[in-house]
Amino acid sequence: MAFIDYYKILGVSKTATEKEIKAAYRKLARKYHPDLNPDNKEAERKFREINEANEVISDAENRKKYDKFGKDWKHGKEYEKAQYQGQQQSQYQSGQHDFSEHEYSDFFESIFGGRGTSSKQGHYPKFKGQDYHAELHLDLKDIYTTHKQILTVNNTKIRLTIPAGVENGQVIRVKGKGGQGLNGGPNGDLYIKFIVNNRTQFKRDGNNLYANVSLDLYTSLLGGEIIVDTFTGKVKLKIAPETQNKTKVKLTGKGFPVYKNEGKFGDLIITYHIKTPTNLSEKEKELFKELQKAR
Predict the structure, then answer these.
(1) Where residue 168 falls among pLDDT bands split at 50, 70, 90?
(2) Whole-model pTM?
(3) Looking at the domain 203-279, which fold is it?
(4) Nearest-10 Cα torsion for 9, 11, 15, 17
(5) Least buried of 23, 166, 189, 238, by fewest C-beta within 10 Å?
(6) Among the listed residues 2, 48, 57, the one whose alpha carbon sits nearest the alpha carbon of residue 24
(7) What is the mean pLDDT of the chain?
(8) For residue 163, which phi and psi values (nearest 5 degrees)?
(9) Torsion over CA: 34, 39, 41, 43 (sign)
């Protein structure tokens, strides 16, 4: 496998800080994200490279291995073990025993699972493939109901069922959809992080939704009925006389779906904001003055 310069891909130096790496990744991920570059194979390839580079050098342990072993960073422990045992064997060879070419070959094959006694399980050790990480951007309305999407990862189409009620920042694992395993080992996994954009009038907090509703002064004083928006449509509400500013009312079951709990919903919490009338006519002012005197 050819060496891939992950620092060059992210456009940072080998001495870059964690903060600098994170900033560079976010900038490039936005630039080459598939949602912003539909049907652009080059952007798709760059996006995969950026995610792979970020997975390696944004993790302190992975970065240390990469800096030391380069393209073989994933198998650093195995190489160190082989090197150590090779040194031990070399010392033994020079001091006490001369290996034949056949025996020397068998020694290394016994380490890596060749013809030696450990070869019964296969010629070489099996290693799990690299895990991939990706972001999926959705609107709040998209995740109100369970739906399916088809994602393309490394030219492979993956049908993904997205349950209603997923949270912003939530990560799910798709088993076996990462990098190919080495020497017959299992494939890595694909980790998808959901980025949920809210372009509605509602604020979401867990399963509950929150909204502000303007209430005119006269209705707040005398009571009445108003029509308000919910996430799925309009409803009629009764206003009690003498309703105070910032009064909260709860509409049970009119909130957001509970994740993986079909048929269950949070609540919609509405806060009334009483609107003071402006541009009063002279007649209205006189009436308010009379009301003030009466109070």
Answers:
(1) very high
(2) 0.56
(3) HSP40/DNAj peptide-binding domain (2.60.260)
(4) -100
(5) 238
(6) 57
(7) 82
(8) -65, 145
(9) negative
pLDDT in tens, 169-212: 999 999 998 888 877 889 999 999 999 999 999 999 999 999 99
Determine how β-strand 268-275 pairs with β-strand 248-251.
Answer: antiparallel
DSSP string, 4-18: --HHHHHT--TT--H
CB-CB contact of 118 with 107 (8 Å): no
Q: Which residue, among 275, 295, 265, 277, has the nearest Cα to 144 in the 3D structure?
A: 265
Q: Which residues on adjacent β-strands are paired with residue 237?
A: 226
What backbone phi and psi angles, to 5 degrees, belong to 205? -140, 100
Residues whose CB is less than 8 angstroms from the CB of residue 51 and which lie 6 or more positions away in sequence, other chains included: 29, 132, 133, 134
The tokens for 242 are 């003498």
Tokens of 239: 């206003």
What amino acid is encoded at 58 in this protein? S
pLDDT-derived band of residue 39, with 50, 70 and 90 as boundaries?
A: confident
Q: Which residue shows structure tokens 């809210």?
A: 198
From the number of C-beta atoms within 10 Å of its C-beta (0-12, 13-18, 19+), residue 263 rates as exposed
Across 139-147, average pLDDT: 94
> Is 142 within 8 Å of 154 (Cβ atoms)?
no
- For the chain, which residues make up each domain, given as ranges? 70-121, 126-199, 203-279
The reply to whether domains 126-199 and 203-279 share a CATH topology is yes
Structure tokens at 182: 């080495």
Q: Tokens 């001369």 label which residue?
A: 98
Sheet holding 132-139, edge to edge: 132-139, 190-197, 171-174
pLDDT tens track for 44-85: 888 888 998 898 889 888 888 888 877 666 765 555 555 555
CATH code of the region 126-199: 2.60.260.20
